[in-house]
Structures are given as C-alpha cells and as structure tokens.
Design a protein that fits this description.
Shape: globular
Order of helices and strands: HHHHH
Helix content: over 70%
Number of domains: 2
Distance between the termini: 43 Å
C-alpha cells in the first residue's frame, strides 16, 4: 500500500509542477524586461564603447523576460489554454532541435559561398538556441490561442 501512496504523491507533485503558472502581472514585468533588454541590445549597434558586461546582462534579461511571459497566467486560464501551452512547448522543442542540427550547416554553406576563403563549421551558442525556442513557443502559443 505504501508504494501506491508514494506513486500518488509523485503524481500530485508532477501535476503541481506542470500546472504551475506565475500571476498575470509577471507577464507585464516580462514584457517590460524584454523591451528594455531589446533596446539595450539594439543600442549596442550604435554605441561602440558599451561594456561586454552590459551586453551579457541585457541578453540574460531578454531570456528572463521571455520566460516570464511564457510561464505567466493568461486572463482566461482553462484546460484548453493549458493544452495549447503544452502543444506550443512541444512544437518549440522539436523545431529547436531541428534548428540546432541544421543551422550550423546552413551557416557554413552560406558563408563559404559568400567568402572565398574557407570557413569552419561553428556550433550555435546556448543563447541563440534558447531565444529561438522561446520565440517559437510564444509565437505558436499565441497563434494557437487566436485560432481556437
């Protein structure tokens, strides 16, 4: 009997983690952090003497802002929105894996066509993959939510 109780306890804990959402105001905090970080990253294009630390912090703020948007509740939270959110996470994961596998070869091919000297094959960084997956997840979630 104790094994069944342990299994039920584990099931309840997994449901809590799966259904965990931050309050809705975190979505607005995430949007603000995303916009501020985006502006700082874009300002780096125009200001050359910006420190490396500011660039790294703004990239991390970019990720945290998107994550807050992703795991925050909606105004109307029901089983359908939970299902759509789960589907968007699954799609983002699959597309992110394909992106991480294919993109280095595409980049290698394009850079060798454009440059006469040979380029080496480069792997994607973790920031690029995470940003891509979060953008895909948010995009698919809102598209699925609009078309329901």
């Amino acid at each position: 009997m104790a094994l069944n109780d342990l299994a039920e306890y584990e099931r309840k804990q997994l449901r809590k983690i799966h259904n965990y959402r931050l309050p809705i105001y975190f979505k607005y905090i995430g949007m603000g952090l995303f916009i501020i970080s985006f502006l700082i990253v874009m300002s780096k294009l125009f200001i050359d003497n910006q420190s490396e630390m500011i660039g790294d912090l703004s990239k991390k703020g970019f990720l945290v802002g998107m994550l807050l948007i992703s795991i925050s509740k909606d105004k109307e939270e029901d089983e359908l929105t939970n299902k759509l959110r789960s589907q968007s996470y699954a799609l983002a994961f699959v597309i992110g894996v394909i992106y991480a596998l294919v993109m280095p070869y595409v980049d290698y091919g394009v850079s060798n066509v454009l440059k006469s000297e040979g380029e080496t094959l480069k792997n994607l960084g973790d920031f690029q993959i995470l940003i891509f997956m979060l953008m895909i997840q948010l995009m698919f979630y809102y598209v699925l939510k609009k078309t329901r």
